[in-house]
What we know:
Blueprint (H helix, E strand, L loop, with lengths): L1 H8 L9 H15 L1 H9 L6 E2 L4 E3 L6 E3 L3 E3 L1 H10 L7 E6 L5 E5 H17 L7 E5 L5 H11 L3 E4 L6 H11 L3 E5 L2 E3 L2 E3 L1 H9 L7 E5 L13 E3 H4 L12 E2 L5 E5 L7 E5 L2 H15 L6 E4 L6 H14 L2 E5 L10 H9 L3 E4 L1 H10 L2 H4 L8 E5 L5 H11 L6 E4 L35 E4 L12 E5 L9 E2 L3 H9 L6 E9 L5 E6 L3 E4 L2 E4 H9 L4 E11 L3 E10 L7 H14 L8 E4 L13 H8 L16 H15 L1
Parallel strand pairs: 5-18, 7-8, 7-9, 8-15, 9-12, 12-13, 17-18, 17-19, 19-20, 20-21, 30-31
Antiparallel strand pairs: 1-4, 2-3, 4-14, 5-6, 10-11, 15-16, 16-24, 22-23, 23-25, 25-26, 27-28, 29-30
Helix pairs in contact: 2-3, 4-5, 4-6, 4-11, 5-6, 7-8, 10-11, 13-15, 19-20
The site of 5'-O-[(S)-butoxy(hydroxy)phosphoryl]adenosine (WT7) has 21 residues, from helix 11, strand 21, strand 25 and strand 26.
Amino acid sequence: MEEIIExxxxxxxxxxxxxxxNILKSIYRKSLEDSESFWRKIAxxxxxxxxxxPVYEPKETPPYAYWFKQWKTNLSYNALDRHxxxxxxxxxxxxxxxxxxxxxxxxxxxxxxxxxxxxYVLKNLGIKKGDRVTIYMPMIPELPIAMLATVRLGAIxxxxxxGFAAHALADRxxxxxxxxxxxxxxxxxxxxxxxxxGIVDDALNHTKSIxxxxxxxxxxxxxxxxxxxxxxxxxxxxxxxxxxxPERVEGIxxxxxxxxxxxxxxxxxxTHGTGGYMVWAYFTLKTVFGADDKDIFWxxxxxxxxxxxxxxxYGPLLMGLTSIIYEGAPxxxxxDRWWSIIEDYGVTIFYTSPTAIRMHMKYGEEWIKxxxxxxxxxLGSVGEPINPEVWNWYYKYIGxxxxxxxxxxxxTETGGIMISPQPGLALVxxxxxxxxxxxxxxxxxxxxEDGTPAKPGEKGYLxxxxxxxxCLITIWGDNDRxxxxxxxxxxxxxxxxxxxxxxxxxxxxxxxxxxxxxxVAGHRIGTAELEAAFLSHKAVAEAAVIGKSDPVKMxxxxxxxxxxxxxxxxxxxxMELTKYxxxxxxxxxxxxxxxxxxxxxxxxxxxxxxxxxxxxxENKNIGDITTIEDETSIEEAKxxxxxxxxxxx
Length: 649
Ligand code: WT7
């Protein structure tokens, strides 16, 4: 990659543009004009068993490209074995810290041995290429170890965030028909014990595909072990160090499934390939953070989300970096927990979400001032738009006005960062609140409703016009949904579901979701999924869920519920429904408020008038709501609004 930059720096560059913007634009042009040679050069930094045929092969149907179709590789080989063949063998891969302060250090060699031992166990349990493995675990080193062991065998992992409840876990197991679940006896969160094995047991009452459960001892709590189904990991793991030959998989072999919310009640199994995803994880970490061997990298995301997959597990290990895994809550036992970790390990690159930053803003600067944060050199933000006020606070108090902030826009579907400043290539002037420019290979644009490009300053839909290596390859088991969700609205073009606007410098400003998906503390929650959960409760006849703005979490779910005959609104019922949502989806989906109403405002064709519900919770009058549902006249909307207000008063 360094080669490409050198080549471009040697070109004559326009005088009127910031030199780094010039460099970035030239690399960008090159990546789109000759993707074959551009990505081949990047791919050569990594190991492949075979390199047959082209890197990039156009395809008739979405996602319109095969990446590394006939090339063969293995993610775990690249993340581990490749490093132990050189000086990185005893370099630290992970510093792990538990919530209670226990520490573990794993070098690349340690990690490689652990992954081989884990792969040995999985293999003996019958796991082979193409099998699905569900992983439901807290943030302990065994989580990345289990993931790497799975891909080592060419099997496909589906990590389910450990904050999801039994019902949500069961749905995700049933959808991909996994054969095995890997979990722990328990987990710790804010000093409390969470019964992960108990949640798995509940989920398994509603699944048929699971043959075996592999349990890792973490919390030491009592668990139920079902004979011939449940196995303690420590009883199966060999005391020796077996070597498990990595499976040589094709570039387009699925490496993992990660479920995310869509616009229906059913989560989507976002499926990533191997070669393209690997190159994307590696390349984006390098360009955006400019990370190298001296860095101590810390991405605070839970591995149960895509940010954790790409920037706690695959990206850093592919780059041979040292990174941090922290098990607990950001403010436990005290609000300065994160700052003390940065100080203790000398973290140089710190990557987190605007929600977390807003939470720390509320705690105040004195918690930060107790710590030496001078090791930091790049700060990152991900998951939601970062407003200028939060950006400036992050810059001033965490970055101490020295470090650039990379505001990184991407999605579960994109595999890695798509639009962001790229100090690893060249640092363009930053504008608080803008994710700046697309990465090489990302042909981003803003479209109007009719599919024509929007002008600078005109709000529209963010689209990606060309295939890029990190793109999802399908939705597990539902290729039609894949095509319809991403490639139908603007035929042949990837639709992101986000609003955006470009300014006169070509910088992108992300303006939030254009669909019915909420962003709650950076997590994606489909209103349809929540509505379906409400409707599965015996007391609920109709449900509508919307997002209300929240000063810390960005949005929180608010529900409007029509009860079935025979049920009366009461505080008890409200509590019961709240608890029910926590137990079906998980605490992250907890509605902030539940309103009981006699009917929901609907259009003539029966569509819920969501804008009216939003106007009510945001305390706006109907005139402030710019667009109302198509077929509704202002008069009708006003009437529905007044009626609803009366019902609630
Ligand atoms: C949605 C994707 C990206 C990994 C974590 C979330 C929003 C993400 C930004 C940003 C504005 C952002 C978008 C996107 N989003 N990053 N820097 N600025 N919005 O992944 O759960 O798949 O959510 O998060 O709305 O579509 P995800």
